[in-house]
Amino acid sequence: METRYSRLSSRTMAFVLAGGRGSRLKELTDHRAKPAVYFGGKTRIIDFALSNALNSGIRKMAVATQYKAHSLIRHCQRGWNFFRAERNEYLDILPASQRVAENQWYLGTADAVTQNIDIVDSYGVDYVLILAGDHVYKMDYEIMLRQHVANKADVTVGCLTVPRADAGAFGVMQVDENDRITDFVEKPADPPAMPGDPDHCLASMGIYVFDWKFLRELLVRDAEDSASSHDFGKDLIPQVVRQGRAIAHRFAESCVKDHPDAPVYWRDVGTVDAFWKANIDLTDFTPELNLWDRNWPIWTYSESVPPAKFIHDEEDRRGSAVSSMVSGGCIISGTEVRNSLLFTMVNTNSYAVLDHAVVLPYATVGRHARLRNVVIDRGVVIPRGLVVGEDPEEDAKWFRVSEGGITLITQNMLDRRAGS
Asked: Binding residues for alpha-D-glucose 1-phosphate, per the UniProt record (predicted)?
């Protein structure tokens, strides 16, 4: 009979690296770290890593923060405060607090763990799962943990299968027929192909499983190396590949899907274009990312708000939404909403049109505004009659227009426009 102790997740701590700014998201990360950026109508990006850990059976977690961490810390405190110490459950928030030296913040991803070795020690775990807090995916980490133990690996690296043409942006693994990693190359010009598949590569997801005893010794040695950048991808993983036993775990084996034929879904929403597309994709008839799956829910902080409301029913003044997601607390007053995603407490006014719009919480859209292919930041007040998405040159005078033609609108941009 299987006991709860036979699940490796019960002996594992998830350490989430959530300190990155995500500068490619431009003004969306002016006031928040990338893991705290909103996604999918009511969640934040970090909720995916934390939910995966919780759903996998992990009840000990830590979140390391650094860049503009207030909204991320507040979100974790409000949405992830249900862990109970008396049940041996913990979620610690670990800001870069100069615990090692007064002038030393987190120097790299590995250093973020090194500076908290004593805290990890206090958990009394056998395994540590290192996670990036800024990707959107669903994954059962227990499967990866079992592969790690079965292969007696020093490190197991989560890997995506990507086309060789796209692999230059990743850390790429070269593996043998048993998925042992024989080489690790960071952002290579000529990426090594997978065995038997010359058109694809195995790219690192930034997910690593270590035996804690092994990782602890590795971190201590790395901290004493003045030539190291103290980063997992640049320093520690290549070292283990050269000197130890590193195994590749293929994401397709642990990706959580609602049916066998569903695609393997993983997204780095690190650019304005990618962020907009991943959100708009959720409005598809059958989106690749299933947020409705009650067997693998994405947990988050849920505000107490009333249901969405649609008002007015006149020929040119009808509150309606087609092929869209509209969150709680929204009031769609005489506005035409198409192929759009509206977050909590968005208010729109009469005669406005939203088409392929991603509108973050508490934004207001004024009368007669026409907005197409836009991302609107939290709390923005769109003025009456504003037209965006029809004249790219005019849009670029005032707003951030991406390479893919998506316009990012923040309140500071609108204020500069109004004062010009």
From this structure: 106, 171, 186-187, 204
Q: Where are the beta strands (DSSP E) in 243-308?
A: 246-250, 266-267
333 is in an annotated binding site: no
Give me the residue spans of the domains in the chain. Answer: 8-270, 309-419
Which residues share a beta bridge with 366?
Answer: none
Answering whether pTM is above 0.85, one says yes
22 is in an annotated binding site: no
Q: Determine if residue 86 is labeled as part of a ligand binding site.
A: no
What pLDDT, in 10s, does the model give residues 248-291? 999 999 999 988 889 999 999 999 999 999 999 999 999 999 99
How far does Cα 334 stand from its chain's mean position? Answer: 34
108 marked as part of a ligand binding site: no
Question: 15: closest CA among 62, 58, 55?
Answer: 62
Beta strands (DSSP E) in 125-244 are 127-132, 136-137, 155-163, 171-175, 181-186, 200-211
8-270 CATH: 3.90.550.10
Whether the pLDDT of residue 170 is over 80: the answer is yes
Contacts of 206 (CB under 8 A, 6+ apart): 17, 130, 131, 132, 135, 158, 232, 233
Q: pLDDT for 376-393, tens place per residue?
A: 999 999 999 999 999 999
Tokens in use for 169? 């942006």
At the topology level, CATH places domain 309-419 in UDP N-Acetylglucosamine Acyltransferase; domain 1 (2.160.10)
- Count CB-CB contacts under 10 A for residue 122: 12
Q: What pLDDT is stored for residue 19 in this prediction?
A: 83
Q: Which residue has the tokens 């973020």?
A: 112
Residue 362 assigned as binding residue = no
